[in-house]
Amino acid sequence: MQWHHLTLSAGEIAAGRTTAIQEAFTALFRSAGGPRTMALFRKEAPEGGVDLYFTPECQLHAWPLLQECGATPCAPPSLAGLELLVGHNEITYYLTT
Question: Which of 9, 13, 14, 40 has a Cα at 20 to 30 A from 47?
Answer without folding.
Answer: 40
